[in-house]
């Protein structure tokens, strides 16, 4: 698979490492010269030191033959436009995934019908199953029209989740289902009796309305 | 016409002032209050400090009854999001984005959004000034080669 990653920050860099380790062809586009250079030192020629929303560079990077475009810059507007541009320039061939940093924007973009581009559900799920970690991502994506969010949460020490099993947390009743546990760089497929540990990253499919309540189970207890 | 101009740089201030001269009602939005100094004496509209894609800001600017949204900020992507919001969310009849990147401008024009490809327009003007043949639009460069 040929993957273009727009944004060479923490998330983009990690995705690139993981995808390269899986022997995918990867190009990372990063317009910040320092970040681009640091990444170049590590993964070499696979870095294009330019803004992915600049059409000529996206074409240069190979959007015409890309299978997947992942937009993970720190800017929601840029991510959305990069995905739209990628779809247009590849004539719909490249699948696109983005992340939404600001939940307030996710509502805005949903009303635009932009959701379609934030939606390569099965693909992301496949990637997660194959242990492509997407560590600091919080809102991974919104699943189209289903009122669901794919979110990642980290189990805080002393939280309700720390030391509990999904069954004990009664997550399904509370609108959430754990897809995968990322522990010490390994992906663990959870059973109802898998015990969660502080430091685990949980990828969770959550009903949008319950997301906040679910989040409290994984957060450190508040000191009263 | 009731128009919202987003971005009060030179271009935004120019079009906002011109629209006032034509007798239209104009609201100008910019993140930076000091940008409004660029508006000419003929500007008779109102100004709002806010962000281009903040729905609350757009609503307070009266986007729900606007006839036109003119997006002129420095950022092509902000402008493109603003016109999509205007068209799709608020059903504004005319929403036009200034887009400096010619590839992005034509890609979004093909998607049905009105774009002003400012770099291409300036290039054309220079060509014309030099007395050369008009520019042949050849669209984006070859893709996938």
Plain-language structure description:
The complex is a heterodimer of chains A (224) and B (145). Chain A starts with a strand and ends in a 6-residue tail after the last helix. Chain A contains eight helices and ten strands. With 224 residues, chain A is an alpha/beta fold. Mean pLDDT of chain A is 77; it is low at 115-126 and 128-139. Chain B is of the alpha/beta class. Chain B contains five helices and six strands, in the order E-H-E-E-H-E-H-E-H-E-H. Chain B has helices at residues 10-21, 55-60, 76-89, 102-110, 118-129, and strands at 2-6, 25-30, 46-49, 68-71, 94-98, 114-116. In chain B, strand 4 (68-71), helix 3 and strand 5 (94-98) form a beta-alpha-beta unit. Classes of the chains: A alpha/beta (224), B alpha/beta (145). Chain A binds chain B through residues 53-56, 58-59, 62-65, 75, 77-78, 80-81, 84-85, 88-91, 105, 108, 111-114, and chain B through 53, 55, 75-78, 80-81, 84-85, 88-89, 101-104, 107-108, 110-111, 140-141, 143-145.
Distance between the termini of chain A: 51 Å
Shape of chain B: globular
User: Would you tell me the overall average pLDDT of chain B?
Assistant: 92
Calculate the mean pLDDT score of chain A and round it: 77
> CATH top level of the largest domain in chain A?
Alpha Beta
**Beta fraction of chain A:** 15-25%
Instruction: Bin the helical content of chain B.
Output: 25-40%
- CATH topology value of chain B: Rossmann fold
Write the layout of secondary structure elements.
The complex is a heterodimer of chains A (224) and B (145).
Chain A: E1 2-6, H1 10-21, E2 25-29, H2 33-43, E3 47-48, H3 55-60, E4 68-71, H4 76-89, E5 95-98, H5 103-111, H6 121-129, E6 139-143, E7 148-154, H7 166-169, E8 176-183, E9 186-188, E10 201-207, H8 211-218
Parallel strand pairs in A: 1-2, 1-4, 2-3, 4-5
Antiparallel strand pairs in A: 6-7, 7-10, 8-9, 8-10
Chain B: E1 2-6, H1 10-21, E2 25-30, E3 46-49, H2 55-60, E4 68-71, H3 76-89, E5 94-98, H4 102-110, E6 114-116, H5 118-129
Parallel strand pairs in B: 1-2, 1-4, 2-3, 4-5, 5-6
